[in-house]
Amino acid sequence: MGQRLALATLILLMQAASAFSDEPLRPGYQVGDWIGHGYSETPVTGPGAGEKFSLVCKYGRRPVVMVYLREINAPIIRFIKQLDDATGEHEKQRLGSYVVLVGKEEPRQDDLKALAEKENIKHTVLAVLALDETYPRGTSTGAQRYRAKLGNDAAVMVVLASDLRVRASYAYRTGELNEAAAKQILADLPKVLSK
After folding, report:
1. Does 18 fall in a domain?
2. Is the pLDDT of residue 160 over 90?
């Protein structure tokens, strides 16, 4: 009897966990949040490539699409190309965009350079960011704030901002940034573009 009860409890817990993981991720950045400088990325394309500085500060109050990734796969590459095209189309409205590949150690910059060349990425800055464990725990460092915003489950975080305020945000687990999700993000660009 005890084993059956334990087995039934385990099955219920597994079903509950499965149902919970099917829920969309709640982005760390919410609409209306202020986007503040907290860390410096290293762009591998665009102006200032190879230097370490804050892309939030670079784009300032301009309309911008900020993408933070833990991985790159075929759907993400398609999204980057679509974002690059949209950024070029809205150049007169000063739309900026950047994609930051995040790792515990700084990801290979050569891989992103090769991606930019192969896919002809011209308008979207590609960058890397190392969030290692050297930052002291319990302090308000940029890396800790970033970890809190990205969360443990998100493989991709996308933020649409203007005037340093979040206008739309999205978070996706591995494999969730599909064609439909990419279309939704791009359809929300008017939220940051001037009328």
Report:
1. no
2. yes
